Amino acid sequence: MKRTLLGIAGLFGFVVASVALFAVVFALVDLRENRSPRTISIGSKAFTESIVLAEVMAELIERKTDIRVIRRTNLGGTHIVFEALRAGEIDLYPEYTGTGLVAILKLSAQGDAERTFRSVSQEFSRRFALSWLAPMAFNNTYALAVTKRKSRELALERISDLTRHPGLVAGFASEFMAREDGYPGLIRRYGLELDARGMEAGLMYGAVATGEVDVISAYATDGRIDKFGLVVLEDDRGFFPPYHAAPLVRRETLEEFAEIAPALAVLAGKLTDAEMRRVNAAVDIGGRTPESVAAEIVARLLESEP
Amino acid sequence: MTETLAAVGIATLEHLELTALALVMAALIGVPLGAYLTRFRELSGPVLGLVGVFQTIPSLALLGLLIPVLGIGAKPALVALYLYALLPIVRNTFAGLDSIDPAVLDAARGMGMRERQILVRISLPLALPVVMGGIRTSTVMCVGLATLAALIGAGGLGRFIFRGISMVDSEQIMMGAVPAALLALLLDGLLGLLERRLLPRGVRRGS
Q1: Which ipTM was obtained for this model?
Q2: How far is the C-alpha of B135 from the C-alpha of B13, rounded, in Å?
């Protein structure tokens, strides 16, 4: 018995040694990533539109202020980016009002774009000390999409049409499968019976085009809707809240750098659905880099400025 | 073209750095831990079980859990890779040392060697192929897992893979996947060479 206790005590030695080893390595990592003053970092989620918007914001700040910007784009899903923002690892990222309302605050969809924006502004400020700056024009709502052929064959135009065909196979992005403004809420609102499967968002389009699945969860401004000849089903029961993108910023950052909010104000009410679809298509289909597309957007925005 | 190559090169270096650091740390802790367990055999079951628990946590979930504590970037990626690399190294070290013929150890004791001398001069060299087998398994696994580091801002070859998936562009996916596969083969080969060098002549098979 005494021997066993001795052995367990020795194991703690190994734990301590591991922690010490990591302390040394982390100190080295910090040394290398040493952040100079007047630097902020901008994050994004891991899909084209989010990356492009983050690049646009980064470029606007660099052009209009002397703040240095570190880009930490392409960071996985909402949970990862949002936690990074709260932890202060990034200072701002583009977020969607509907996502903030339903996925982060866990509230139910409520009213129009303005009301949604007011709710998230108040609640994020109160709960997380985060600020929403003015949103852009386009509404990148979730949408269910099917191929044109399937739409013709089964007479699918609205989401409620899906109730006539129980057992259709759905390929939904993993995040959509889990979110209250996604699959769980959707089937309740419409009484759908789908054979739903979670998959990586980028793989859905190929799967629906080849007929592996019948219906997918798409983004309304996604360039791939056109590329793969898909039709978006109308949300005839108004299930999805509005999803307008806006810079979500740490309050601390706004206080430290007063020039950030004015620099990003030029985005307010800009970029329509059609423009955003073209931008996304230029990257996803045209093979352009998010950086170059973002630079063009910024040039256009600054041109139109008085 | 050269720009693409440079980007792949940088990403490969980031990838190598993450993998190598995590593996060195896992070997520094894992091999002594495996040896320690042969002394306290009653602890080997619980400890191997505990180290094995990390393997059962899906890698992306583990990264997600580490973010509130360690933020994004290299730190959570290193911790996750280290935790995954530990099990094969500890288990193989333990198994390798454990399977040595007790008669050999008795003979060493009979020659007046101390326990520490026996471990360093007899047991470890005899168990070396099995120990190195564990390290090589961890290496190949870590090169693959490190692609997920891209999702938490730690860079590496996963960047091309995930960008390629979201852009439905298999060329981009290849730009990440092919160097990653080559890196795994290269590191495994290098460790194989090291193993041959470390193995004392008397123990080498077929020589």
Answers
A1: 0.83
A2: 20
Closest C-alpha to A94, from A240, A279, A248: A248
User: What residues have CB less than 8 Å from A106, skipping those under 6 apart?
Assistant: A180
The CATH superfamily assigned to A36-139+245-304 is: Periplasmic binding protein-like II (3.40.190.10)
Amino acid in the structure at residue A107: L
Cα–Cα distance measured from residue B153 to residue B150, given in angstroms and rounded to the nearest whole number: 5
Q: Is the four-CA dihedral B105, B111, B112, B118 of positive or negative sign?
A: negative
Residue whose pair of structure tokens reads 């505990």 in the numeric block? B50
Query: Please, which residues 81-110 of chain A have a Cβ atom closer than 8 Å to chain B?
Result: 83-84, 86-90
> What predicted TM-score, i.e. pTM, was given to this entire model?
0.77
Q: Report the relative pairing of strands A39-43 and A68-72 from DSSP bridges.
A: parallel
Please give the single-letter amino acid code of residue B45: G
Alpha helices in A47-182 (DSSP H): 48-64, 78-86, 97-98, 113-128, 148-154, 174-178
Distance from CA of B202 to the nearest CA of A (A): 33
Buried b (16+ CB within 10 A) or exposed e, A119-143: bbbebbeeebebbbbbbbbbbbbbb
Given A21, A46, A203, which is nearest B151 (Cβ)? A46
CATH of A142-232, one of 3.40.190.120, 2.30.30.100, 3.90.79.20, 2.40.170.20: 3.40.190.120
Span A123-172, pLDDT tens digits: 999 999 999 999 999 999 989 999 999 999 999 999 999 999 998 999 99
Query: How far is residue A95's CA from residue A100's CA, in Å, rounded to a whole number?
Result: 7
CA distance A233 to chain B (A): 22
Span B140-188, pLDDT tens digits: 999 999 999 888 888 899 988 988 887 777 888 999 999 999 999 999 9
Q: Is the dihedral of CA A116, A117, A120, A126 positive or negative?
A: negative
